[in-house]
Amino acid sequence: MSTTTQTLDEAKLQKFMGRFVDDLGAALSAALVVIGDKLGLYRAMGDGEPVTPHELASHTGTDARYVREWLSNQAAGGYVSYADDRFWLTPEQSLALAQEGSPAFVPGAFQLATSLIKDEETITRAFQTGTGVGWHEHHHDLFAGTERFFRPGYAANLVSSWIPALEGAQSKLEAGALVADVGCGHGASTILMAQAFPRSEFVGFDYHEASIEHARQAAAEAGVDGRVSFEVAPAKQYPGESYDLVAMFDCLHDMGDPVGAAAHVRQTLGQDGTWLIVEPYAGDRLEDNLNPVGRIYYGGSTLVCTPASRAQEVGLALGAQAGEARLHAVVAEGGFTRFRRAAETPFNLVLEARP
Ligand SMILES: C[S@@+](CC[C@H](N)C(=O)[O-])C[C@H]1O[C@@H](n2cnc3c(N)ncnc32)[C@H](O)[C@@H]1O
Questions:
Q1: How far is the CA of 254 from the centre of ligand 1 (A)?
Q2: pLDDT digits (tens, 9 = 90+) for 216-247
Q3: Cβ-count burial of 271 within 10 angstroms (0-12 exposed, 13-18 middle, 19+ buried)?
Q4: Looking at the whole model, is its pTM more than 0.70?
Q5: How many C-beta atoms lie closer than 10 Å to residue 134's C-beta?
Q6: What does the pLDDT look like over 66-108, one tens digit per residue?
Q7: How far does the centroid of ligand 1 lie from the alpha carbon of residue 130, in Å?
Q8: Could you tell which of 251, 278, 316, 318 is best to mutate to test the pocket of ligand 1, judged by most ligand atoms within 8 Å of the CB?
Q9: What is the DSSP code string of 1-28?
Q10: Which atom of ligand 1 is nearest to the CA of 304?
Q11: Nearest Cα residue to atom 27 of ligand 1
């Protein structure tokens, strides 16, 4: 008997294999969530009425045999409910899967995750060469998936909790302020702020041209395009001055030179301005982040954030789990003297920096 066999703990192995079965089921089901979302299968079930696979297929213009298989996977995973050859969504399943705009809506997260699986070969090569992979080089589902993943959290917190938690920012926004949303992506946060503060003016900046085009369209659809504009610009070079508020949502750690970006924010901010930095929730030590949320973020960080930073000048690669202390150091190096945690959620650190 080898030493390994003697020390092998059967119960621990079984526990690990149980974990593996859960993970493999989740990994295979990720594409099925995206299929259900893209083809409107969840939306067609959103009213909670029990349906047969044939009924769902005919409502959605899809093939009944495929739909039966899909429904069976979904029922096995607890994403839909099943009895007597009929499938339905409970109110909770409907909120999470069928109702885009609800704070619990999750398909965007799977759209993001499956886009990254498509990029696995590129990232594998990056491990070998050490070169970066820019945000813009990813599959387009990453851009849409990121917006759809983050928007529910912004809709639930940004206007109601995060802005009120900043010193004096809310009253300025109510009276009429100038705001830059840097690294704005598809502009979900910019548009939410513009809707809430009609006297203020908002400019969204991002270096990624396709995201800026999408943001412009979204602003027009939301009817806020008169007070919101979007421009292609990197964080170290966006135009304008005397901003009352500069916001960065989940992007500082993606930048190659976050210290340079911080210095540019400092230069463009009004004397009494505020820099709002929303970053993934993280503790300062690796041990603090060895949990389910940390697992998600380290995954995204390995596949997107670290390569994105590496693709830009300096290539500091903070990673998505940089933590408050590291972020504070970056902000201070950029010339800010005041820094505090203004709020938090299980997914976000909400940080406030002042000159
Ligand atoms: C994870 S996404 C977040 C997008 C958006 N803020 C949101 O919360 O939905 C990161 C964004 O940062 C942008 N970005 C990365 N590096 C940048 C840089 N140096 N200057 C401007 N934008 C940058 C990317 O193009 C991308 O849109």
A1: 7
A2: 999 999 999 889 999 999 999 999 999 999 99
A3: exposed
A4: yes
A5: 16
A6: 999 999 999 999 999 999 999 999 999 999 999 998 989 999 9
A7: 21
A8: 251
A9: --HHHHH--HHHHHHHHHHHHHHHHHHH
A10: 1
A11: 185
